[in-house]
Every structure is written in C-alpha cells, then in structure tokens.
Amino acid sequence: MATGTIAHSFARDLALVPDATLAAVGSRRLESAKAFTGEFGGRAHGSYEDLVADPDVDVVYLATPHSLHLAGARLAFEAGKHVLCEKPLTLSVSEAEDMVALARSHDRFLMEAMWTATHPTIRALRRRLAVGEFGAPRHLHAELGFLVRSDSPDRLLDPALGASALLDMGIYPLTVAHLLFGEALSLQALANTRAEPTGTFDLDIVMTGRYPDGVLATMASSMTSWSSRAAAIATDRGRIDLDDFHHPTRAVFTPIGGGSNDGTAPGTPVAIEPEEPVLGRGYGNEIAEVGRCLRAGLRESPLVPHAQTLAIMRQLDELRRQVGVVYS
Length: 328
Ligand SMILES: NC(=O)c1ccc[n+]([C@@H]2O[C@H](COP(=O)([O-])OP(=O)(O)OC[C@H]3O[C@@H](n4cnc5c(N)ncnc54)[C@H](OP(=O)(O)O)[C@@H]3O)[C@@H](O)[C@H]2O)c1
Prior knowledge:
Blueprint: H1 5-14, E1 24-26, H2 30-40, E2 43-45, H3 48-52, E3 59-62, H4 69-78, E4 82-85, H5 93-105, E5 110-112, H6 115-118, H7 120-130, E6 137-145, H8 165-181, E7 186-196, E8 199-211, E9 215-222, E10 231-235, E11 238-242, E12 251-255, E13 270-271, H9 283-295, H10 306-323
Helix pairs in contact: 4-5, 5-10, 7-8, 8-10
NADP nicotinamide-adenine-dinucleotide phosphate is lined by residues 2-7, 27-29, 32, 63-66, 68, 86-87, 113, 115, 155, 161, 168.
C-alpha cells in the first residue's frame, strides 16, 4: 500500500526472499501503481480499497505516512488481510493500541516493520550481549540524522503527516536500546522545534535514558544535519562499534584491558558476525520473518512483539510531551 521511497526499497529486497511474491500494488493513482508494477511486477490497483480486495494478497505492507497507518490497517484487517506496518506504527500509543486491538478482533497477524529488530547482526549482538560475552554494558551512544531539504514539499516536514525527527529517526536508537537493555526506566529529551500552521514538530532531538542494571544511553536524531548513524556501546571489558546501527554492515567488539572470552589480544577488534545471511539491505529479513510467522500460524512476531512496539510508542508519547510536540 503506497508507492513512495520506502516501498521501493522494500520491493527491491522482497524479490530476494524465497516464497515471497509481490502480488499487487495499491496507490492513490493508478499511474503510480502501474509505474511501480512495471519495475517490480504484480497487479496494479488505483486505490487502497481495490488492493485489499485482491484475493491474491495475503499480507498488506503499509508504506503510507504514519498519520495514515491506522486507517490503512483497518482497511486491510476488515478485508481479512494480515498487516506489516511501517514504523512508527501510529502517531500515538492510543492509536497503536487501537491497531493491535483491531488485529486481535479480526484474528490477523500484525507486525511493526522494525527491520532493525529482525536484522541478523543486531540479533547476534543482542544474543551475545545478553549472555555476557562482551562484559557488562554501561553506556550506549547512538545517533541517526540526515538533512531534510525544506525547498520542496516533504512528508518529513508536514505535521499533518506526522513530521518529527523523533518519530522518523529517534525511534531507532530507542528501539536498539530497548532490544539490548530492556525497557527504559526514565527518558529525557531536548529538541529544536518548528511551528507550522498545521502544528509544531521537532527538527532535532537529543535524548538521555536510564535502563535496567544502571545502563545509560545518549541518543540523537536530526533533520537539519548529517549525523554519523553510528552507535557505540561501552562495557566493562571494551567497546562495541556499529557503523550504521539501524542496519549495520559492520559490528565489532574491541576488548580493552582484560581481553575477550576467546583470548583475543586486547585492542584487536573482533567482528560480530550475523548468524544468518542478510537479505538485501535487511528488509528481506523482515519480510522473511513475516512469512515464517504466518506459516507457523502466529499472530505476532517474537522478534517484534506487540508489547515491544507499544512500549516504544509510550516512550515516543512521553518524549513528545516533554518537547511540546502535539498532533491535531
Ligand atoms: N523502515 C525504514 O527504513 C523506513 C524508511 C523510510 C520511511 N519509513 C516509514 O515508511 C512510511 C513512508 O515513508 P516514505 O519515506 O516512503 O514516504 P514517502 O516517500 O512520502 O511515500 C509515502 C507514500 O504514501 C502515499 N500517500 C498516501 N497519502 C499520502 C499523503 N497525504 N501524502 C503523501 N503521501 C501519501 C503515497 O503513495 P501513493 O501515492 O502511491 O498512494 C506516497 O508515495 C513512514 O511511516 C516512514 O516512517 C521507514
């Protein structure tokens, strides 16, 4: 559902996933749907209603702006389809709870398209960190930002479509911290905001968090500058570095002072290898997870459970409250 930027990246990776087929594409305009199917295959529909009515569609991937996710999900569930919904699930936790309730009442599968959580490198890091292989984590620093040009219309700068550095980018460091350390005990934010006739939104945001076992996090997102996209986790035995933490191509542990469990000399970085192949840029692994869950008869993914999505949505609500971003 929808033919924007992320739908293109998604379709490219879907072609690499065994047992997944792009059956159909729905767009507000038939020409857009036809251009998309011309590139990636499938049947073109000139409305979202026609897409969800297509009998060949099992799962609807929602790639509309976040303010439209709930309406799109309702349409899909009422037509009996399962849903993979882009992040953030909705604009607020109350809307997200409504979406989860709709999935349950229609007995359909629902997963937030949080590809970071299904990425094989992040999964390997999560598993190995949890068993203490890299020592006790003490501090995470993660930042994700890119310049959004304001000289042409863009959903990223339109409050009516859920504009927010926090919702578009800040959700990733928050999710990584949650995956690695558990639910935040407290979060604080500072932001630069911009007022538009349709609402005020955050252009840049910095956040600090306290997590279980005394782990602290500093996180940043920006629509006005080029952040590194990197993350570093300091432990009592060394440091973990991720080049692009929301879909890493490189993750290493550098033991410092005490050496690592496998006897590697201090100071020599050791790669944290993914335990299964990364499919495409990593969207493929998220798509494969949906297929795996459906074949197993699941209604939510253990890698992206509803409770996790709702916990992060609650955090987004709280951080928006702190920086004064309210959607109409
Ligand atoms: N997982 C990731 O890495 C990732 C990356 C970027 C974005 N996202 C998420 O994916 C969603 C879409 O982001 P995007 O960057 O692909 O956005 P985009 O390029 O602006 O595309 C959004 C698409 O939604 C449809 N749409 C329906 N009503 C619309 C409206 N009123 N205004 C604008 N578009 C409308 C349009 O498709 P039709 O005209 O074909 O209907 C449009 O092409 C967002 O929720 C975002 O947070 C995820």
